[in-house]
Amino acid sequence: PWTLTLTGRAPGRELVEEVTARIDRAEKGLIIAGGGASSASVAELGRHLGWPVLATAESGLRGREDVITAGHHLVAHARPDLILRFGPPGPSRRILDLIESEVDQLVVGSGWSDPGRTACLMVDTDGAALAAALVTDTSERQSGEWLAWWETADRAVRQVLQPELERSFSEPAIAARVGAAGAELLVVASSMPIRDVASYAFV
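The chain above was modelled as a monomer; its predicted structure follows.
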């Protein structure tokens, strides 16, 4: 598709209004917090809109209670009508499949992060500042069935997987334990190790 690009070191009026207009037209939005999206304002925007915030392992937001951490296991079962993505999406093949599908996608962050070449809007600006501006500019929505489904499914996945991850010594179990250690910086090898962290490190 054609991709519109908006740029601003700080999110200006025109930029905020363009993103707001697209959000206002969506009912089942999904916010993906990717690499570097550790600002609390991203999670606050999700609460404000009544949209789930899918926190990738790279986001730094998985320690929060108001985000979706088992998104890798859920994205194939729900169809948003808009994706608002902050930062690179990470290595999860299932999340990559979602953002490469025919769903309108707005991408926020420095540089060009559109691996599937499917974004309809690229916003090169400070993600935390834009999220805070959108909380002010967009209408607050009540959380409904869309958000409830994600929250219920997220809890269910973790309840099913957690006992097995705690008693086994598999690669996913190691990834889960390393994630639970709460390190501020974690260096992980490529291929399966980084994918295991993306899929099973829920905190």
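Residues 52 and 147 are 6 Å apart (CA to CA).
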